[in-house]
Amino acid sequence: MSEIQKNLVDKNTEYSAAFTKGHLALPPAKKYLVLTCMDARIDPAAAYGIDLGDAHVVRNAGANAKDALRSIVISQQLLGTNEIILVKHTGCGMLTFDDDVATGLVEKNLGAEAKEALGAFGGDFKTFPQLEDAVRDDVKLLKETPLINDEVPITGWVYEVETGKVRQVV
């Protein structure tokens, strides 16, 4: 067992010994979904005030709305959420490279066969050169898709990893 796996087991043993939230309902109590980045510097529960059972939190590279659509549809249609908060962040890795760089790294590190396998998602890493524009673009995508009801409030935010503060963009 790796040190990381051992840590998971040890910390889970501590957590489960004091766990008292097994009674929470499957649908989130406050009926909203947060889409945020997978960046390890973000603690969505602490930074965004989310208690266990309150909301769905979907995380992916860059808080990408298109990548999250499947989860958003499930959250809304099957589990009753009715608001979306999208939060990207400063210092995001998705600002630091483009598809050509990522494709080149995959080929260099994993070979030509792996490069070809990028076709599974079209080789589109969904990078973005400008943070606020990316927030606006993803909110627009969510507001325009027929997969989300027009009455669902959708807002876009930036979390500042340097300060821990959020600011609304749209």
TrEMBL record:
SMART domains: Pro_CA. Zn(2+) binds at residues 37, 39, 89, 92. It catalyses: hydrogencarbonate + H(+) = CO2 + H2O. InterPro entries: Carbonic_anhydrase (IPR001765), Carbonic_anhydrase_sf (IPR036874). Keywords: Lyase, Metal-binding, Zinc. GO terms for molecular function: carbonate dehydratase activity; zinc ion binding. It comes from the Eukaryota. The keyword Aminoacyl-tRNA synthetase does not apply. It is an enzyme of class 4 (lyase). Pfam families: Pro_CA. Its cofactor is Zn(2+). Binds 1 zinc ion per subunit. Its EC number is 4.2.1.1. Belongs to the beta-class carbonic anhydrase family. Reversible hydration of carbon dioxide. This is Carbonic anhydrase.
